[in-house]
């Protein structure tokens, strides 16, 4: 009887382990399927962006690439996602271009976080110090290793361009609340870039000049929805911008960098994807960075 009991318990344990193993194997297989669907999304994006370049001389929010995919059915699940023009956002690595970019970023920080202008300027100066290649503090309120080594735990300034906008969380004066408010309006691209006025969110447009308010920017947004600007000069000639000294060199109506973000669900296999693309002249598009997260 004892032997029978032992054999029964042992058998149940073996079957339990086998079921767990099969369940895990099934999850791995489903996750692999979701992964390959996400690769298919990346291939599709390269084609969409190439065709867009062939058929349009500008990039604007009324084009096919800008339409979100809320639900695309696939075997056993669905794909969702959207393309985000990264040149509609403030590129943190453009801070190396000089004081104009730093002032623009400070105004954006002040506008979306409700920080006071002194704190916003400190964040802008410290962010520039984070990405520049020297250890000299940007006066009067920048931050280099002498500040970060005094933190718990201590760390150093990167002194290189940001690889991800999430690095902003490590910059002096930045708080979790400030970062949460800023995250949707900033990016970190491999090179300095101009801002696409046809795709920039309202706070990014409003921060182009200290005398621009959200009311004026809302009127600009209504105009571009009807007729996107074909050139930067056409944008600068709008009545809402009359008399404002805005540097045209920092603006554009075309874009080279796009982010595909979304998720793939195949039964229990679930993957979030983020894929950054660079489009060159002529429409040739290549994937330059991507990440995937099983959830």
List the helices and strands and how they pair.
Blueprint: H1 2-55, E1 69-74, E2 77-85, E3 90-91, H2 99-113, H3 117-131, H4 145-148, H5 176-182, E4 186-187, E5 195-196, H6 202-206, H7 214-226, H8 232-236, E6 251-252, E7 257-266, E8 269-279, E9 285-294
Helix pairs in contact: 2-3, 2-5
Give your account of this protein's structure:
This protein is α/β, with parallel strands linked by helices. Among the domains are: 27-86 and 255-294, GSPII I/J protein-like (Pantoate--beta-alanine Ligase, Chain: A,domain 2, 2-Layer Sandwich); 95-184, EpsJ-like (Ribonucleotide Reductase Protein R1, domain 1), CATH 1.10.40.60. The protein is 40% helix and 18% strand. It is built from eight helices and nine strands. It has helices spanning 2-55, 99-113, 117-131, 145-148, 176-182, 202-206, 214-226, 232-236, and strands spanning 69-74, 77-85, 90-91, 186-187, 195-196, 251-252, 257-266, 269-279, 285-294. A hairpin with a 5-residue loop joins strand 8 and strand 9 (285-294). Helix 2 packs across helix 5. The two termini are 46 Å apart.
């Amino acid at each position: 009887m004892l032997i029978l009991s032992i054999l029964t318990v042992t058998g149940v344990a073996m079957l339990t382990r086998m079921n767990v193993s099969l369940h895990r194997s099934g999850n791995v297989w489903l996750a692999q399927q979701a992964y390959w669907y996400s690769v298919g999304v990346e291939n599709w994006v390269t084609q969409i962006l190439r065709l867009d370049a062939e058929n349009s001389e500008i990039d604007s929010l009324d084009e096919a690439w800008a339409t979100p995919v809320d639900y695309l059915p696939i075997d056993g699940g669905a794909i969702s996602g959207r393309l985000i023009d990264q040149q509609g956002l403030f590129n943190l690595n453009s801070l190396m271009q000089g004081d104009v970019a730093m002032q623009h970023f400070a105004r954006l920080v002040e506008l979306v976080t409700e920080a006071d202008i002194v704190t916003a300027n400190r964040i802008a100066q410290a962010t520039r110090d984070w990405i520049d290649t020297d250890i000299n503090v940007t006066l009067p309120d920048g931050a280099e290793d002498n500040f970060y080594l005094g933190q718990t735990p201590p760390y150093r300034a990167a002194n290189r361009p940001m690889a991800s906008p999430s690095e902003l969380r490590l910059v002096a004066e930045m708080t979790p609340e400030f970062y949460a408010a800023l995250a949707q309006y900033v990016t970190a691209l491999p090179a300095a870039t101009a801002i696409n006025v046809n795709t920039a969110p309202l706070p990014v447009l409003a921060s182009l000049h200290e005398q621009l308010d959200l009311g004026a920017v809302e009127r600009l947004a209504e105009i571009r929805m009807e007729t996107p600007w074909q050139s930067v000069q056409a944008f600068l000639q709008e009545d809402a911008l009359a008399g404002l000294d805005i540097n045209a060199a920092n603006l554009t109506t075309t874009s080279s960098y796009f982010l595909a973000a979304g998720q793939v669900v195949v039964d229990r296999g679930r993957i979030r994807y983020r894929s950054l693309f660079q489009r060159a002249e002529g429409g040739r598009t290549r994937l330059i960075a991507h990440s995937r997260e099983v959830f």
